[in-house]
Amino acid sequence: MGPVTSSWTSFGGDLHLDLTERRAAGAGLRAALEDALREAVQDGRLAPGTRLPSSRALGEDLGIARNTVVEAYGQLTAEGWLDSRQGSGTTVARRAVPEPPAPARRAGTRTMPQRQAARHDLTSGRPDISLFPRTAWLAAARRALATAPHEALDYGSPLGRIELRQALTHYLARVRGVRTDPDHLLICTGVTQGLGLLCAALRNRGARTLAVEEYGLPPQHAVVRAAGLTTTPLPLDEDGALVDRLDTRPGAVLLTPAHQYPTGAPLSADRRAEAVRWAREQDRYVIEDDYDGEFRYDRQPLGAMQALDPERVVYAGTAAKSLAPGLRLAWLALPDALVEPVARLKVLADTMSPVLDQLTLAELITSGTYDRHVRRCRLHYRRRRDQLIAALAEHAPHVRVTGIAAGLHAVLQLPPGSTPEPELLARAQAAGLSLNGLAWHLAAPTDADAPPALVIGYATPPDHAFPAALQALCELLRRA
Ligand SMILES: Cc1ncc(COP(=O)(O)O)c(C=O)c1O
């Protein structure tokens, strides 16, 4: 779109900023405005250099307080999306904005890349859903329903069904070393919901900022902001996040210690201890997103960081990778002080999570079927990973593959001077390949001129489609 000047009279109309939907989804005014503006910058509707209206004009236009606009501009300036200079107003930052890898999103949808149209789907974040154990799930559902007491179908505890909390207590202790009990576990509809509830609880106890890893999952960042917290990124290196940069401002830090998402490094033992020390000294929390902790290939799984201090580390786990994202089943192991505040927010959100799937998962875990399924998936994904590595070694030896000891995705780093990332993504799209660039995962834009890198979800395609997807990927990289 053309330059937008301060003579705007109908800002909302010109930009199609839809605060209404965001407000209806529970976002505060400031968070809704920030989110709408950020999205407009990210998807290019607000081009670099575009001058934004004054806070007073925009406030009047949208019928909101000027201060709300000042705060939203301030946050987006801090994140690097906007430039604010005394005397010359606020403009969209003049630096490359990561291109979305696929066609523009529909307004109001979750900030997820589109996947439907692509012939080859190598986006990260999903398992091979053709592996879902349909027969075992049906059998477990039948057994669970046949034996459930009538009261199981009534309104119940916001923490979730006791059967699942008991099963998870034992499972998580055995497999991930988590130290919890059924009274400290809360079942939620995804880590996404759990994170939103946690952020809202932290905000209620005075937090205003959440520290996040500099690369992460943009939809999670949106959830944090919708709960009223700002994000402050921590740099990463091969030992994970630089947690020694944590100061007094964040109310908590969100980490992916077992397998940094998306770069793949595990958080070193020293840094785990340091983050816990920070949380104790500052009366803060660590949120451990253990999204793919069961999938480690080359050595024993790293235990959960939560075991270092269950009163300072919130453990978040999910069935999204081990079973299917569509189940919307996840769990939080909470410190004592957070159980009641988070449970209260869960009641406000949706009373409690649906019971039948909880009972089924409990049955699947206690019968040992879940363990067998995870073992089978681990072998399957390990084979996939090895196929990816072999194909790249043969057809694209200039590409460095990292983050492959665990999980369901890898990062492919191209040498300096290769085709720039936005161009590479455009070519991928033209070739029917759906994937994400590393820059899409940035928590805030950076001036650093990083060589192009791709995040490849090698679990995503079903078996029959994987060889063709690999071939298309290698062809793309060969020409890069
Ligand atoms: C880093 C990370 N955390 C958590 C999740 C799972 O989120 P949910 O349980 O809401 O599906 C994912 C799934 O893609 C992820 O990539």
List keywords for this structure.
480 residues, alpha/beta, Arc Repressor Mutant, subunit A, Aspartate Aminotransferase, domain 1, Aspartate Aminotransferase, domain 2, 3 domains, seven-stranded mixed β-sheet, four-stranded antiparallel β-sheet, 15 helices, 17 strands, 40% helix, disordered N terminus, binds pyridoxal-5'-phosphate
Termini separation comes to 30 Å
> How do the strands of the widest beta sheet line up side by side?
4-12-11-10-9-5-6
- Describe the main β-sheet briefly: 7 strands, mixed
User: C-alpha Rg, in Å?
Assistant: 23 Å
The CATH topology of the largest domain is given as Aspartate Aminotransferase, domain 2
CATH-defined superfamily of the largest domain: Type I PLP-dependent aspartate aminotransferase-like (Major domain)
- Structural class call reads alpha/beta
| Oligomeric state of this protein | single chain
Q: What is the total domain count?
A: 3
Q: Which blocks of ≥5 consecutive residues have pLDDT under 50?
A: 1-7, 9-13, 99-116
Instruction: Please name the CATH architecture of the largest domain.
Output: 3-Layer(aba) Sandwich
SSE diagram, text form:
Blueprint: H1 11-15, H2 19-24, H3 29-42, H4 55-62, H5 66-79, E1 82-85, E2 89-92, E3 120-121, H6 134-147, H7 162-176, E4 185-188, H8 191-204, E5 209-213, H9 218-226, E6 230-234, E7 236-237, E8 240-241, E9 252-255, H10 269-282, E10 285-289, E11 313-318, E12 330-333, H11 336-350, H12 355-366, H13 369-395, E13 400-402, E14 409-413, H14 421-430, E15 433-434, E16 436-437, E17 453-457, H15 466-478
Parallel strand pairs: 3-15, 5-6, 5-9, 9-10, 10-11
Antiparallel strand pairs: 1-2, 4-12, 7-8, 11-12, 13-14, 14-17, 16-17
Helix pairs in contact: 3-5, 4-5, 6-12, 7-12, 8-9, 8-11, 13-15
